[in-house]
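Inputs:
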Amino acid sequence: MLEATDLHVSYGDLQALWGMSLRVDDGEIVALIGPNGAGKTTLLRTITGLLRPTSGTVRFDGRALHQERPHHIVDLGIALVPEGRRLFAGMSVLENLMLGAFTARARPRRQETLRGVYEIFPVLAERLGQPAGTLSGGQQQMLAIGRALMARPKILLLDEPSLGLAPVVALRIFEVIRRINADQRVTVLLVEQNVKAALELAHRAYLAQGGRIVGGGTGAELLGDERVKSAYLDFLSVS
Amino acid sequence: MSAQFIAQNLIFGVLTGSLYGLGAAGLSLVFGVLRVLNVAHGELIMLGGYASFWLFASYGLDPFASLLLTTPLMFVIGLGLHQGLFTHVETLDEDMRIKNSLLIGFGLTLALHNLAIRLWTADERAVTTAYSGAVIAAGGLVFPVVRVAALVIAFGAIALVHLMLRATYVGQAIRATAEDWEAAMLMGIDVRRTYLIAFALGSALAGVAGTLVSVGYSINPSIGLEWTLKALIVVVLAGLGSMPGTFLGGLLLGLAESVSALLLGGTYREVVALVIFVLVLMFRPQGLFGR
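Outputs:
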C-alpha cells in the first residue's frame, strides 16, 4: 500500500535519511522504532510531502508521492498526526475537527465522519466550543488523532502519540489506535518511543538507526531482538 | 475649554480612528497570515484613493459607489503584487521572510510613490461631492456626513472580513495558516493559494480605506508613509489575530490623538502615537487584544 524505497533526505547540509526503505501493507499496524536522530520523523515528513527527498521514491497504491505537494497527498488518503500535535490552539475543538475534513475527499461526508470521531472520543463532543489550546495533554492528543481521522484516511501516520502523556492516558491512546485499525480498517504507521507498547500493538515493526532501517520483523520478534532489548527495553520500565 | 468642545474633538478622534483601524486591518491580516510586513501598505491606500478620485473626476462616479470598482481592482492589484514580488519570500524561514519582505516593501514604496507623482503630480487631491460639506447637527455637536459614512463603511468592511474568516472555508484556511502553516498543509489546505488570497484581501482592504480617505480627507502621492505608520502603531497596539480588535485599536489611536491635541496642542499628536507604540511594546508586546 505504502512503500518508501531508498530515500535520501537532507536538511540543508545535514543528511537525515541515508537510503531508508520500508513497506506498509493494507490493514497493518507497522511500528517504526529507533533512537533520536534515527530519521523517524523525517520519514513521516517526507511521506506527507513536507520534505522532498534528494533521491528515492515514495509510492502509495502504486502512485508516486515524492513530487506531490502536501495538500494533494492528504487528499489521496494519507493523514499525519504530527509530533507535538500541532493543533490550531486558538481555534475551537470543532473548528480543528472541521479543518481535518478540508479535502475534497473528506468534505462531503464530514458530518458522518464527525459522528464517528465522537464515538471514539466522546470527550471531544463535550468540548466543541473550547479553544484547542486549553485542553489537557491527553485530550489534545485525542483531538489531533480525531482531526486526522476527519480526513477519512486510508493510512494514518502517527508521530510519537504518547509523548508527554501520563502512562494511563498513553494506554488509552494505544487502545484507540488498535480500535481504529480493527474497526475502521485504517492502516497505521506508528513512530513511538514507548517501544514495548508499540511492539505489542504492531503487526510488524522496523528498527531505524542513523537514517537507515537496520532491522525488522513481527512485533514479537523485535521484542526478543537482542539489539532492541539492549538499546531500549532494559531502560524503559513501561506498561 | 467647554465640554462641548471636548466632546466634538473626541468625535473627530473616533471618526479618524475608524480609518486607522481599517488601514491597519489589511496590514494585520497580511502580517498575521504570511509573516510578510508590507511597508507599502500605505501606498496601496494611496492607490485606492487615486482610483476613486479619478473615477469621480473623470466620470463623475460617486466615491461611495466607486467602492464597488476600486475594491475588486485593488484585490486584483494585490494578486499581481503577491505573485510578482512577495511570493518569492514565502519559502524562507519566518525571520528571513519578515526581513526580506521589508526590503521588497521599501522598494515597492519608492516605486509606487514616484509612479504616482509622475502620473498624477504631487498635488493634494480630494473628492468633493455635492454633499461633502453636509453635517448632521445634534446637541450642539456636528457630525460631517462623509466621515460618518466612512466610519460605517469601515466598520462594515471589518465586520465582513471577520465573518468571512469565521464562517467560510477560505476564512478557516486563512486562520489555520496564520496559526500553523505546516499543520494547515497537513489538513489539505493549499497554503500558497491561501497566502495569495490573504494578500489580495489585505490590498482590497487598503483600497476601501483609500477611497474613504480621498472623500473624508485628502490624498497626495506621499500619504503612504503616514498611513503605514499609523497602521503599524495600530497593529502593535491591538495585537494580531482579531479584526474587531484591530478596529478598536484604530479607534483608540484616533481618540488618543484627539485627547493629546486637546491637552498638549496639535503639534504633539504624532509624538503621542509613537509614545503609545513604545509603551505597548514595553509592557504588553502581544498587544491589547492579541493572543
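Remarks. Chain B has a mean pLDDT of 94. The longest strand of chain B covers residues 135-138.
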